[in-house]
Amino acid sequence: MIVHLNGEFLPIEEAKISPLDRGFIFGDGVYEVIPVYSKKPFRMMEHLQRMQRSMDKIGLQNPHSIERWEALCNEMIERSPDPDQGLYIQVTRGVAPRDHAFPKDAKPTVFMMSNPMRKAPVEWHTEGAAAITARDDRWYNNDIKSTALLGNVLARQKSAEVGAVETILIRDGMLTEASSSNVLIVKDGTIFSPPKSNLLLPGTTFDVTIELAQKHGMPHQLRPITEAELRGADEIWVTSATKEVLAITTLDGKPVGTGKPGAVWKQMHAHYQVFKREVTGC
Ligand code: PDD
User: Fold this and answer.
1) 181 CA distance to ligand 1 centroid (A)?
2) Where does residue 143 rank: exposed (0-12), middle (13-18), buried (19+ CB within 10 A)?
3) Residue 161: how many CB atoms within 10 A of its CB?
4) Which residues make Cβ contacts (< 8 Å) with residue 106, sequence separation at least 6?
């Protein structure tokens, strides 16, 4: 496997990072995951812009121009054998003696790899998937796509332990997002989702979903969602670059709506597949 580290493409075994890297010591870095279909990146610019936003929020100087990032991403995709990939980019504040305060002259560490995209199991389309809920006990800067993911890791582990695909998070009685995806619900034919805020990641897949709802005249509204509304929803969806739009059909072991992927999800899923083909040309 070929990866990218600080300007070089090299076999993963040869990619070495100092234990003093602040990504390792403090989780002091940002990342992105860009889906790639038939070797064509999907929404690359939006991901690169979100990465810039994450860096701005943590005071990390972007080491590359957008044009350079595009070239690096394209080269990483070319050098990775699979047509469908999950392109991972990580930028940390670099290597410095351990001190919480920012180092004066550290150089950001840039790491990239592109793994084969995990295929969605067929049952996800026919049956949907299970999720559980948990208290959102993460920090208050979840709009930053930070590599410091312990809160998300602990949340995700709860669902992994019961064989569910996601942990949907509730903060002070309100829906925020899930451990590694955004959440939308459907009630009486309308799609609802919490508006963007510091409590959740501004998802690129979420944006596509809302754009498609607009384009196809599907009623939708962004507003705070209570836990009761989540539990009483006809449909629940989770969205992410790797899951696309996935129907959640059981929540905490209870069926959501009919317990099968709903009619609105079916419409959205179909629109999403067509849109993907349009923009990637495959
Ligand atoms: N996760 N919320 C969280 C906490 C996430 O980690 C993600 C993505 C999303 C959805 O964002 P997007 O649609 O841009 O992928 C929402 C990625 C896939 C990951 O960490 O692997």
Assistant:
1) 5
2) middle
3) 9
4) 22, 93, 94, 95, 96
Per-residue pLDDT, averaged over 68-82, amounts to 98
User: Rg (Cα) of the chain, in Å, rounded?
Assistant: 19
Secondary structure element (H or E) that encloses residue 71, with its range = helix 66-79
Q: Is the predicted pLDDT of residue 49 greater than 80, yes or no?
A: yes
Is residue 281 predicted with pLDDT exceeding 90?
A: no
pLDDT at 282 over 80: no
Task: Catalogue all structural domains in the chain, each as residue range(s) with its CATH number.
Answer: 2-116 (3.30.470.10), 122-280 (3.20.10.10)
Q: Rounded CA gap, 230 and 107, in Å?
A: 44
Burial of 58: CB neighbours in 10 Å, binned 0-12, 13-18, 19+: middle
Q: Is the CB of 167 under 6 A from ligand 1?
A: no
Q: Which atom of ligand 1 is nearest to the CA of 241?
A: 15
Give the whole-angstrom CA distance, residue 146 versus residue 150: 10
Assess whether the C-beta atom of 114 lies below 6 angstroms from ligand 1.
no
CA of 58 to the centre of ligand 1 (A): 18
Supply the pTM of this predicted model. Answer: 0.97
Q: What is the pLDDT of residue 280?
A: 85
210 phi/psi in degrees, rounded to 5: -70, -40
Q: Which of 16, 145, 215, 260 is catalytic?
A: 145
CA atoms within 13 A on the CB side of 77: 23
- As a whole number, mean pLDDT of residues 215-242 equals 98
Query: Is the pLDDT assigned to residue 139 strictly greater than 80?
Result: yes
> What mean pLDDT do residues 47-53 have?
98
Query: What's the pLDDT score for residue 72?
Result: 98
